[in-house]
Design brief:
Elements: H1 5-17, E1 27-29, H2 36-49, E2 57-63, E3 66-73, E4 78-82, H3 93-99, E5 104-108, H4 126-144, E6 149-154, H5 156-167, E7 172-178, H6 189-198, H7 200-206, H8 211-218, H9 220-223, H10 231-240, H11 249-254, E8 277-282, H12 290-299, E9 303-308, H13 315-318, H14 320-336
Helix pairs in contact: 1-2, 2-10, 3-14, 4-5, 7-8, 8-10
Length: 349
Amino acid sequence: MRVGKLQLRGWRARLASDGALTRGHGFRTTDGAQSTADGAGLAAEALVLYGLGVPVHSRFIRAGGHRIHFLEAGAGPPIVFVHGHGGGAAVWHPVMEGLAPHAHLLAVDLLGWGLSERAAFAGRTPREAQAWWVESLEAWRVALGLERFTMVGHSLGGFVAASYALAHPERLDRLVLENAGGIRAPAALPPALYFRMVGPQRLVRLFGPAGHLVVRWARRVEAARTAVPGALADYYYELATRPGSAASGERAFARLLSLRRWRLPLLEAMRQVQTPTLLIWGENDTLIPPLTGYLLRTKMPAARLVIVTGAGHSPHAERPPAFVEALLSFLDEESSAGRPPSGSEKHKT
């Protein structure tokens, strides 16, 4: 069941006593005061991250005229993580502890999702939606002072990461696509109808407080991996109910998906990507089946494919050790092949 207000206050007090609100999960911003929605979202995020063995900092920065939120952990070559539909930076929590000793992790909330600004999306075409996210990520990169880095994208985040690789190949040392969406035009009919006609966030809002039960059922596999019971469901619920969501990321996503097809498939365009690429796919994914990974591998000259057994749509959440092993192995092999690690980053605070 959902973590209630009294339980939430109790956990927040425990976080404060542990120093998590000012140290590991510091709610530090670079652009002024937080809103009430920020406070609720940050509290939900902190509960998801609570118990990790590495410090994780929660931050905001102004980029391209918008307020973008991201999480930061670890030290070393920078890796940027891009979440999927309806998610946020904290969904990467299952792999942060395993990766932080090896890299500087930067998990960003896409514009219109997570804890980032719910800017109204005014575009009408799939390309405008694609550009909205790619340009926002590029503005975030510039504001943060990153020069080159590895980018990891899951599901919708995979589409955005692939689109970024096509638009800004000079910025990427490596690309990792995990169960990436938007690669092929055909879409499985029931999920396409659900996402286009109903939408998970809209359904959550329709059910009001009971919408939390919808989230809990949909995220039941991931939910088992948080130290605080119910924390991940609370987090997704907060993200789905943030003011302005329907006119922001949700509207941009709707421009990309019709009732039966993804309107801007990238499969053929990915032939242009020369960046060393790792494709990670869960063998049991029914939303975006492994066939997509196999087809993508045939188009990309610098790609390798890893199929994660026992995983579905989210290997990083369902099989974290396998995901971490695949990613670190890929980074090590690329470095051994003579390609320098990502670097040359500068921070602007």
